[in-house]
Design goal:
Two copies of one chain form a homodimer.
Chain A: H1 3-8, H2 14-39, H3 44-56, E1 59-60, H4 61-67, H5 72-84, E2 88-92, E3 100-104, H6 106-127, H7 132-147
Chain A binds a DNA duplex (30 and 30 nucleotides) through α3 and α5.
Chain lengths: ~150, ~150
DNA sequence: ATAGGACAGTTTAATATTAAACGAATTAAT
DNA sequence: ATTAATTCGTTTAATATTAAACTGTCCTAT
């Protein structure tokens, strides 16, 4: 029985096993961490946008999309909903009319400042399963993983 | 300046930094890995269901939902779409009529067997950024993270 | 100057996703 | 046995998400 047929029948390589553990853990703790935000009426993407605006300042929708790894069409809707809730404000750029800059409103800033500590607490609670040394190692491995450049496929 | 105000202004603890690296890497490589499946018309959830049915055998919708960490309402739609595509088949249980068992059709089995090696190859390509020892360590850390039980919040 | 291309944002169509309300079937409690 | 609680699946309403087609806007090469 060659390797190919073994795989098809359920054999898992070291790489695949690790990936499954990685994926499962992420989905699990992501659900736990963001359920808190949901209680404040914010989705993960909405929180990501508020966080970027708060820490980086006003940004174009394109920048925001790149930052939270979401498509342009999606950003339109996320900003729509944040705008409906009065948390952000759109402003068409005068230098280059293609760009729309998104600004935090006072209401948005107030909500974010209220929620951020709770979010950080939730993250720290989840991560506290690891020692500080392990957190560092996890971060290092993930950076190495995510930074992998394409093009090494034969 | 106390710790709370430092945090609010951008200070990131070791736990938060590691979590952000973890989240960013996951979203990045997940998009790369599942873009291949999308070309075959399968979403990540649909593939997860086919995988469970193939490796574990026929299951109830509830079991499938638990397995891929998705809500009941979602499973209804995912199975709907797989059924429309002729890849799975529903069967109401006769012992307990609340349960609906989902079965792979021949067409579904054929497609899955065709795609699985490509998916495994994509996973291994991504994970190849790490050494075997690092993969093992990553898996260990993730299991520790995800297994954390609630209830240690004061 | 203008035609073509590049780029920002929107719209559309399809699927995903959840929470909550709901209906049907089963089990537990009295 | 009848009631109450639980469990499974569906439906609904809302947002997320993407790819692809589309509209404006800006830039560039001729």
């Amino acid at each position: 029985m060659d390797k190919k047929s073994i795989k098809g029948l359920g054999f898992k390589s070291r790489a695949v096993t690790s990936f499954l553990q990685y994926m499962w853990a992420y989905e699990t703790i992501k659900a736990r961490i963001f359920s808190m935000l949901n209680k404040y009426g914010l989705t993960a993407s909405q929180f990501g946008v508020l966080d970027a605006l708060f820490h980086l300042g006003s940004r174009s929708q394109r920048d925001l999309g790149t930052h939270i790894l979401k498509s342009g069409g999606n950003i339109t809707m996320v900003i729509d909903n944040l705008e409906k809730a009065g948390l952000v404000r759109r402003e068409r750029s005068v230098e280059d009319r293609r760009f729309i800059y998104v600004h935090l409103t006072d209401k948005g800033k107030k909500l974010f400042v209220e929620i951020l500590p709770l979010h950080l607490k939730a993250v720290e609670d989840e991560m506290s399963a690891l020692t500080s040394r392990e957190m560092e190692e996890l971060g290092r491995l993930c950076v190495k993983l995510g930074s992998k450049k394409g093009g090494d496929r034969k």
